[in-house]
Please model this.
Amino acid sequence: MPIFTPLLGVYIGMGTRWIAQKTSTSCGPVALLNIKKWLGQPVSYKKDFLEMHQKCRTKEFGTELKYFVKNLYKIDGIRILPRNYPTTAQLSSYLTEDRIILMKVAIPCEDEVMGHYFIVSKQTEKSFFCVNVFQKHLWMSKPSFDMWFLQKHTYYCYECGVAPYCWILRKI
Model:
């Protein structure tokens, strides 16, 4: 049974098949591995992470956008629709049985802005299921999601560029 955390507006404790992010800078390679997992490819953290980490040229501050995008567009079996500054309503309309949303966000953290890649895979009327957010897979209320990730701000992360940004991925 999931537990609701009022401060963050999230549910925690949901079991899932997704690969978990193990370090604070591995969100890019793990997001790409999870896309392959969603497509039904036999991937695992233990077997495939190091290769994807190297392909993405992930460094101590994470994965730069250009290497992330280069590897995203090499994945077979998906059609990609990019969107800059998406809204909650747009994300809800795109999220269907054969689609997931890959998010790129910039989050203010102390004196800097941190970039983060994660997946939104499901929704209810009031929540999104987010893969690898706050070091968990969790259900987040749509108002909390909007507050944390879709603010119309001027944050710019050196590693990941302008945010928020998303790619709507559809199986083909």
About this structure: The CA atoms of residues 63 and 151 lie 22 Å apart. The first helix runs from residue 27 to 38.
